[in-house]
Amino acid sequence: MTDAKSSLPILDLQRFAAGHPERAAALDELRSVARSVGFFYLEGHGIPQEQIDGVLDLSKRFFTLPEQDKLAIEMRKSPHFRGYNRAGLEYTRGTQDWREQVDFGPERERLDIRPGDAPWKRLVGPNQFPDALPELKPAILAWIEAVTRLGIRLIEVFAEALGQRADVFEPIYRDGPNQLLKIIRYPGRDKTESYQGVGAHKDGGFVTILLQDEVGGLQVDDGKGGWIDAPPKRGTFVINVGELLELASNGYLLANIHRVVTPPAGGDRRSVAFFLGANLASTIPVLDLPPELGAEVRGVTQDPLNPLFHEVGRNVLKSRLRSHPDVAAAHHADLVELLKVPVPA
Ligand SMILES: O=C(O)CCC(=O)C(=O)O
Ligand SMILES: [Fe+2]
User: Fold this and answer.
1) pTM of the prediction?
2) Which part of the chain is the Fe2OG dioxygenase domain (predicted)?
3) Which residues touch 142 (CB under 8 Å, ≥6 apart)?
């Protein structure tokens, strides 16, 4: 298979290493890409191809399990928004997405919640793993570990590209970042049906690290009313800036809008999407940028349909409640009221 063309650039993580002769040029490139389109391909990331192939293969095997084995870990059973969702249960800006998926997060004990505690504490808890595919659990936990390390390296280079110390974000992830990992399958559909695999949206974390199979369908807003295709390139990940980096840079960096178009009927597409977030108890700082960058901040684009908060836990909870109205209704009816999140009847 030859890789399809894309106008998104490819950056090599090795070029950012201390002492590398191209380091300054690499930082300039990253700053410009992360500000203009907010998406790029990453090579030189150090994650072995066998691990990449392994996680994609296990995710394919999960989705071919009998429905009852998948439903055994249905998200509706988890107040922490972990587990399996059939296609059609997730909404983006109120419109139905068409993908089945399993969501995983940090593997923790659930917290003992007391009256008056911050509502985001309900997000903390265990994952659901399928008994029918026991190999999935160790592979997913190892993947979360590998991509978390990579994600932290990426936010270090983003920090440097913004003229900051590499560890400027450390205080807001050192007590444990909040990760979200999704294994996803987009079933093919007839052209007469909706083509929304996942509707146009921005991602919420610092960065997203996306692994996709050979099918393609991811598209990035070109800022001119059109879409840039981001087809798979073997051995690379698609990386994009999330809302936390846009907030911290006061809009210098761009958390860009993207979507996935459903594959044609008869086929399907799989992806493994990882979102590195900050600690749920933390608050996103606004960085003090060097004057030449500070002069170019745009402020954060506030969307009335999707307000952004600097308090991380509140932001994550809001987005989980909005994406999964069935879980919200089953476990968090009181918060739905509180956060004024519309739940379809
Ligand atoms: O599946 C993909 O390629 C991207 C999915 C995505 O954008 C998301 O889940 O936020
Ligand atoms: Fe996304």
Assistant:
1) 0.95
2) 176-278
3) 51
Question: What structural domains and CATH numbers belong to the chain?
Answer: 10-338 (2.60.120.330)
291 CA to centre of ligand 1 in angstroms: 35
ipTM given for this complex: 0.99
Cα–Cα separations (whole angstroms), residue 10 to 17, 81, 202, 258: 16, 33, 21, 18
CB 73, CB 126: distance < 8 Å:
no
Helix, strand or coil for residue 337?
Answer: helix
Amino acid identity, position 158? F
Chain centroid offset of residue 239 CA? 9
**Ligand 2 centre distance from Cα of residue 96 (Å):** 15
C-alpha distances (whole Å) from 222 to each of 21, 189, 306 are 32, 25, 21
Q: Is the CB of 212 under 6 A from ligand 1?
A: yes
**pLDDT per residue over 76-121, tens digit each?**
999 999 999 999 888 888 888 999 999 999 999 999 999 889 999 9
User: Cα dist. 272→76, 139, 277 in Å?
Assistant: 21, 12, 16
- Residues 339 and 127: their CA atoms lie apart, in Å, by 25
Token representation of residue 343: 């739940």
